[in-house]
Amino acid sequence: MTPSVLQQAPIAARALATRLRMAALVRSSSLPELLQGLTVDGVDAAPIDVVERALFTSQRIVRRLRVVPDTCLYRALTRYALLRRAGHPARFVMALDPSAPDVQGHAWVELDGKPVGETIDKRYAVTFTYPEHVERPS
Predict the structure, then answer these.
(1) Which of 7, 48, 90, 109 shows its CA 20 to 30 Å from the CA of 134?
(2) Do 79 and 109 contact (CB within 8 A), yes or no?
(3) What is the pTM of this model?
């Protein structure tokens, strides 16, 4: 069942606001500091399908605006922040392609060890995760 607009709207608005300020956040702190600040667990609890749909909606808006960077880093940081805020044990992941002739990397978010919102190419070697280990709800 598709989440209703009323369920999605506040989360999509938060996703859009987070995405619009992400470039400034990235410039003003180290990645571990930024991720620590984005880790606000369960403040706005919401089912995963509602969060994913709201993230999809906000991503479409960001692509049309073209006023903020639209790279995997900014998408992953926003996904991480929204998923954690909704109470899901997300993990931020960065990786490099060791076979690439120049530095080529990717960032994404995982839930239960699986990427959220995308498929990951197996050639990437994970270089950084946050948190290092995700606590599972008991």
Answers:
(1) 7
(2) yes
(3) 0.88
